[in-house]
Amino acid sequence: MSAGYSLVAHANNGPVDSGGCLLPHYGAQCTPRSGDTESGGCAGRPPSSRHVVARFLAPVRAEIVESEIPRPSVSLAEFHPRGSHVGATELSAQLWKERALIELLLFKLDELELIVADNRSRWVPRATKEIEQVLDRMSTAGLARAIDVSGVAEEWGCSPEAGLRELVAAAPAGVWGDLLDSHLQALLDLAGEVREATQTCQRLLRSAMEWVPDSGLTAAIPPDAEQSLETATHDANYRLALAVTARVLRPALEDFLR
What we know:
The protein is mainly alpha-helical. The protein has seven helices and two strands, in the order ββααααααα. Helices cover about 60% and strands about 5% of the residues. The chain has a two-stranded antiparallel ribbon. Mean pLDDT is about 75; it is low at about 1-15, about 20-30, about 35-45, about 65-85 and about 210-220.
């Protein structure tokens, strides 16, 4: 406690602050030490409670905070030593994300197939847009995966452009070879399903472009003009769907799974 005053309080009567220290209250008395005089109060009369709290708690709190701060016993480098395969963990997590995106793409392709097979041309543009959005997300995921692959390949002595099969063969003894191989097999299966679904969608789209939809003509509308407009819109939507589905089979992913 700082010089000048000593705090006297009954243990059962005084309030306690968050650090476990007694605060001044009605039953507390601040008495000057012999020979000391403070500007906060005169001899025989206690200073203001704010003055006592400030002088009493500041050094105590500082001491508590300083003594209770946890100190690391080891360096951060010891948590991730060389050879701990942190890069492989990140690569595996990224492959899980790509697998989820490919499954989502497969779902969207199945949606488009059902829409086209049922001649629901109204929903073809929306289904096409959703496929485009998944493809954009897959492009971003592919870039992140390439960064992770380069780090793991350097650690395992492979080329930065190594494919997943090469990484499986170069994996050190332990769990990583089996884990990456399971990713490889799952991705190959998904790629095969996506390839089949894409071919089915494209075949249905080409067939639908040869079909002229019912124009729902009325006597007030010239038949040729109505049919020509609807056919043009129909063909434009289906041609766009063909162009988007042609982007599904990405060479970068095919090369990575080689």
